[in-house]
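Before the break, one more example. Copy the sequence into your notebook; we will annotate it together after we see the structure.
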Amino acid sequence: MKNFSDTSIESKVTVGVGITAITKDLIVLDVNNVLGLEDKQRVDAINNFDFSRDFDTRTNSSKFVELSNKVLTDFTKCKTNRVLVHDDISNKFSSTGFQENKTVIEELTEDYGNYIIQIIDPDTFDVQLSELIVLTTTDNAYLLEKTTDFTTMKLGDFSTEIDVNDEKNISIHTNRKI
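Here is what the structure looks like once it is written out:
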């Protein structure tokens, strides 16, 4: 037997000749008595949640139920704080900038590259603008610095490097950690 709610209705009626009928309705709605498919509960169990009133009465349903003592709020129960990994994009970011003054800007895959690089210090708003030309061969990478202009101080120097996997990179060496 499945009990979704226990409802009891009480009425007080004053009736007499020439007297208007006054009724006071009371509905006890037990919304806490929802059981699972395998759960069993006694038929005569009483679990009153609160006194309620349906103030917009409809034929077969209740749209607005007003509770007298309880306040219902949105509730989310978090059983664990485990993070589910949906899309791992960690390889798109680098955390080496927090540990050292050198940052790899780009891997060099072409024989020739022309770069205009702007560096802005977010603390002092100093700006450096550099124009670079990079030439690569099978064994080496060459960097030509055409011009470097800055406001009050030079913020970094550029270089090319070949790592242990024979990948050629252009890097920036800053004056402080970025």
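The longest strand covers residues 127-136. The radius of gyration is 38 Å. Try to locate both features in your own notes.
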